[in-house]
């Protein structure tokens, strides 16, 4: 079977800045990836390449069977959903829209509904509300939801267009522990819908069982990549985070701590 994502010796430069260098990365079917790295390590730049918003300065990129340079990138972007805490700043566009209308707008990649909605689109929104256990929100204006509910509705909105890949860029930032766990619970449904996840976070405990592989980025280069259990090792994470850390596994989830007696300057 074809790779979902294939990056070969990819570099990304802006002016004098070498933002990404020597990136070799494959995502194969049935893999769901987490990406970890300090602020400025290049995570967002990498996501922007994979989702067809940035073109690499050199190297080869193929995503969902589309070889960059020989493909229509706007068409590729339609197959990729995106949920980010930074989408919150667009929340005003949803204004006082009802939850189900926010979800249906995902089909048109717009912030409101300006096109004819088919009955099956409303049915699909209902189905998504049900499968993500959000039916109790039907009919509620989006702006009245809690932050956690909003993020889960944004997942439903992203799934409305049947994406082949869902990019989650720090989707839990700003959520309390309960909202975070409720959010992470929806990943099971996403994986069940045959959608590939790329999950960027600063908190390794968010790498729940659905996330099978991890890529570590440091200063625009890959420190390690592969199955989660092989990559989330103290030595590799200490290198990535430039601070000595330990990793503890509890209920199949990794937890990070800074090593005792470390003084950080
Ligand atoms: N268009 C650009 N022009 C110049 N420098 C850029 C550009 N985009 C990103 N950079 C720089 O590239 C580096 C990587 O940025 P990027 O946003 O990819 O990092 P990140 O890992 O997503 O960081 P964060 O965790 O803070 O979101 C940073 O030093 C950033 O300032």
Automatic annotation (TrEMBL):
Pfam families: ABC_tran
Keyword Transcription: no
Domain ABC transporter: residue ranges: 5-244
Domain of life of the organism encoding this protein: Bacteria
Family annotation (SUPFAM superfamilies): P-loop containing nucleoside triphosphate hydrolases
Protein keywords: ATP-binding, Nucleotide-binding
Gene Ontology MF terms: ATP binding
Transmembrane regions listed in the UniProt entry: none
SMART domains in alphabetical order: AAA (SM00382)
InterPro entries associated with the record: AAA+_ATPase (IPR003593), ABC_transporter-like_ATP-bd (IPR003439), P-loop_NTPase (IPR027417)
Classification via PROSITE patterns: ABC_TRANSPORTER_2
Protein's name in the database: ABC transporter ATP-binding protein
Organism of derivation: Sporosarcina soli
């Amino acid at each position: 079977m074809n790779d979902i994502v294939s990056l070969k010796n990819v570099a990304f430069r802006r002016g004098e800045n070498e933002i990404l260098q020597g990136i070799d990365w494959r995502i194969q079917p049935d893999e769901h990836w987490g990406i970890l790295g300090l602020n400025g390590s290049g995570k967002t730049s990498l996501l922007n390449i994979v989702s067809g918003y940035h073109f690499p300065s050199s190297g080869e990129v193929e995503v969902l069977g589309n070889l960059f340079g020989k493909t229509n990138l706007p068409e590729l972007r339609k197959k990729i959903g995106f949920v980010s805490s930074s989408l919150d700043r667009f929340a005003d566009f949803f204004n006082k829209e009802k939850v189900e209308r926010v979800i249906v707008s995902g089909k048109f990649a717009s912030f409101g509904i300006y096109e004819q909605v088919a009955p099956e689109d409303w049915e699909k929104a209902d189905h998504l509300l049900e499968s993500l256990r959000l039916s109790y929100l039907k009919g509620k204006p989006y702006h009245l939801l809690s932050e956690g509910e909003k993020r889960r509705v944004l997942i439903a909105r992203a799934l409305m267009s049947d994406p082949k890949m869902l990019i989650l860029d720090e989707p839990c930032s700003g959520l309390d522990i309960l909202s975070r766990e409720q959010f992470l619970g929806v990943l099971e449904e996403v994986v069940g819908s045959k959608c590939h996840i790329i999950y960027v976070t600063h908190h390794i405990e968010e790498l729940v069982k659905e996330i099978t592989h991890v890529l570590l980025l440091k200063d625009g280069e890959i420190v390690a990549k592969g199955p989660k259990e092989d990559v989330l090792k103290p030595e590799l994470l200490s290198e990535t985070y430039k601070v000595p850390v330990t990793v503890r596994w509890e209920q199949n989830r990794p937890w990070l701590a800074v090593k005792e007696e470390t003084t950080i300057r």
